[in-house]
Amino acid sequence: MDITTVSIIVFVSLTMTAVAVGMWARDLLFAGGGGAGSAAMPRRLRRIPNVFDAAPAKDLSGRIDQGFERLVLESGTAMTSTTFFLVLMLCAIVFGGGVGLFEDDPLVGIAGAMAGLLIPLGYISLLRLRRMKAIREELPVVLDMLARTTRAGKSVDQALELCAAELSGPLAAEFRQCSRQLEMGRSFDSTMKSLAARVRMIEMQILTTTLVVQRGSGGNLSESLERMSAVVRDRMMAYRQMMAATGAGRVSTMMVATIGPLAFLFLMLVHRAHLQVMFDEPLGRLLLFSALLLEITGLAWVFKLLREDD
Q1: Residue 30, pLDDT above cutoff 70
Q2: In the chain, where are the structural domains located?
Q3: Please, which of 37, 95, 136, 202 could form a disulfide with 173 given CB 3.0 to 4.6 Å?
Q4: Contact partners, residue 172, CB within 8 Å, separation at least 6
């Protein structure tokens, strides 16, 4: 690889590093954390609109953009979607450029760039999964506290404020944000709708709907919350039993789905001569392209099935 290509890769990597670090510092210092459910107080009055304030997109590109932004915000990190996108590009350039310079092969560099994109995406997806699991585990405790507080004669606003002050965790941070919104004069219906949009769980949708309906029509809220807490615990128990019963099948499915790309990367990095004929012959390139499309389709289908199980 010539010196010009090396210089371009180094320059772009350093530039994107500086931009990503600067934007991350801006998000951390001036946006109060920037992530959904952040416990830090915002340091400016004007809030930047995000995907939770927008209507669902109708076109494919809009759904991809909103899905990416929602993934970043729901992970609870102190980054915006723009900052994380720069981090993705930085990892792709650094990892792909480093591997390409070491092997002196553009195809190996492309494979390294793809790996550099997948590693941060996998990490932030794991953060989001852990955060949503923590919210689901914390929800019955919150429901019990709301039921006891309303039974003691407190209002729903005071019950939300008590949960925000007494509990610790991602769901408590969401209630702190609701309390701040109510203190600033936002309507109760809009606040609950925003909470349901930030925490996309069927249990949270039921809770927010119950609170809004009780706010308008009245009723025994404490008994409804106690029954809801029992239902949520039963759902969690059934979910754990289902996960335990299908664990072996899910692991084997993931192994079958990922063994092909891993074997291809191993042969490309270790035994490149075995794959060279696939790149040289037109039929080999057609087969590789077809295999790539089928693998992407299969992985998307598998991940969709696993997410529906969640």
Answers
A1: no
A2: 134-245, 248-310
A3: 37
A4: 39, 138, 142, 163, 164, 166
